[in-house]
Design goal:
Order of helices and strands: HH
Number of helices: 2
Strand content: under 5%
Radius of gyration: 25 Å
Helix content: over 70%
Largest sheet: none
């Protein structure tokens, strides 16, 4: 009885986890879905790169300010 209950609980949680997945599945010939997903992924990647480059520029400016002998 306990084994059957554990199996049901295990299956219930596995089904729930798969329902909360964010990834959208596109069909083989669904060009609209695939292009939309490609554009969204590209925008996300570019925004991440933009944030990293802003941080890098800020760190570079801070290092230059620290090394400037006229400011001391």
């Amino acid at each position: 009885m306990k084994k059957i209950l554990l199996i049901y609980i295990f299956l219930f949680f596995n089904i729930n986890i798969s329902l909360f997945a964010d990834e959208e599945k596109c069909g083989t010939f669904d060009l609209k879905c695939k292009s939309k997903k490609f554009v969204e992924d590209t925008k996300k990647f570019q925004n991440e790169g933009l944030e990293k480059s802003k941080d890098q520029i800020k760190r570079g400016k801070d290092k230059i300010k620290d090394l400037n002998p006229l400011k001391k």
